[in-house]
């Protein structure tokens, strides 16, 4: 199938790829934005906690349907960082993002579960033999943003566990940072998101070398998943190779990467407008 010259294709299955496709579809209403995802769903089952103030007001109606829960504040618990902050935190659902993409893009502009065999600047070839041509192809199979070499190219492991408790767990607002252990390799810390008064999501971040670490605590595990994330998503790059509690980049963590995506979408949109002109 060949698309018109107005087509802009985003290639990727991540939460960020889905956000970018939606943003570009809003910013460029005269462009047929298409999302090609090799997975069966965009973003998987990820639910992302972000500060409500980080959600861009000009695009609020885009993000509102993705919010599954809002808390009134959050806590930070560590030897060097400790306190409660009355800033609202929203939980964004990738599964709801998938639904929004289906409704907005439809089957013609949302392509799933077909491996990409070749990707160029203006075309994508799929394992099915289909060729999609476009004015531009944006490859989001890798993380958007500047890539770092050297020690900052390291990865961190995430262990996510949803736990149901027989009695109320007592956590009202999220604990977005709780220090567990330190070493020369980095720091292990956890997040605790109270989904209901008896259901708690535990997310433990640790250097990949410690990826065998599993959240501990009472309750019955309903779901357990493991991921890896770029160190740059967690630590301030200005701190060089310092993977300490002091280097945790709360601004990036609580932004959910949306700020970088908005900047990227703006650059792509400006480039498309220049091409059309």
For the structure shown, list the relevant keywords.
single chain; 277 residues; alpha+beta; 7-stranded mixed β-sheet
Summarize the structure.
The chain is built from 5 helices and 17 strands. The chain is α+β, with helices and mostly antiparallel strands and 277 residues long.
SSE inventory with pairings:
Elements: E1 7-11, H1 15-27, E2 32-37, E3 47-51, H2 60-63, E4 67-71, E5 74-77, E6 82-85, E7 89-93, H3 94-109, E8 110-112, E9 116-119, E10 123-126, E11 131-133, E12 136-139, E13 155-164, E14 175-183, E15 186-194, E16 199-207, E17 220-230, H4 250-255, H5 258-276
Parallel strand pairs: 1-2, 1-12, 2-8, 5-14
Antiparallel strand pairs: 3-7, 4-7, 5-6, 9-10, 10-11, 13-16, 13-17, 14-15, 15-16
Helix pairs in contact: 1-3, 1-5
Describe it.
By secondary structure, the protein is of the alpha+beta class. Helices cover 21% and strands 36% of the residues. It contains five helices and 17 strands. It has helices at residues 15-27, 60-63, 94-109, 250-255, 258-276; strands at 7-11, 32-37, 47-51, 67-71, 74-77, 82-85, 89-93, 110-112, 116-119, 123-126, 131-133, 136-139, 155-164, 175-183, 186-194, 199-207, 220-230. The strands form four sheets. A seven-stranded mixed beta sheet has the order 6-5-14-15-16-13-17, with no helix packed on it. Strand 10 and strand 11 (131-133) form a beta hairpin. The two termini are 26 Å apart.
């Amino acid at each position: 199938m060949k698309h018109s010259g107005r087509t802009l294709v985003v290639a990727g299955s991540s939460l960020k790829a889905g956000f970018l496709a939606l943003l570009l579809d809003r910013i460029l209403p005269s462009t047929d934005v298409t999302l090609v995802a090799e997975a069966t769903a965009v973003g998987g089952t990820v639910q992302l906690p972000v500060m409500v103030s980080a959600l861009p007001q000009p695009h609020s109606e885009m993000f509102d349907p993705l919010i599954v829960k809002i808390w009134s504040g959050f806590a930070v618990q560590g030897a060097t960082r400790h306190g409660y902050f009355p800033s609202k935190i929203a939980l964004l659902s990738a599964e709801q993002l998938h639904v929004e993409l289906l409704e907005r893009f439809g089957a013609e502009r949302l392509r799933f579960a077909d491996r990409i065999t070749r990707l160029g600047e203006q075309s994508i070839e799929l394992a099915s033999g289909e060729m999609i041509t476009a004015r531009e192809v944006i490859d989001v199979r890798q993380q958007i943003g500047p890539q770092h070499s050297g020690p900052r190219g390291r990865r961190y492991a995430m262990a996510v566990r949803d736990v149901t408790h027989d009695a109320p767990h007592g956590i009202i607002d999220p604990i977005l940072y709780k220090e567990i252990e330190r070493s020369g390799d980095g720091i292990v810390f956890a997040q605790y998101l109270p989904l209901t008064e008896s259901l708690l999501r535990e997310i433990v971040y640790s250097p990949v070398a410690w990826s065998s670490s599993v959240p501990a605590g009472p309750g019955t595990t309903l779901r357990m998943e493991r991921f890896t994330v770029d160190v740059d998503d967690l630590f301030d790059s200005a701190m060089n190779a310092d993977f300490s509690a002091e280097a945790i980049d709360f601004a990036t963590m609580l932004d959910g990467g949306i700020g970088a995506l908005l900047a990227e979408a703006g650059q792509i949109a400006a480039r498309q407008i220049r091409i059309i002109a």
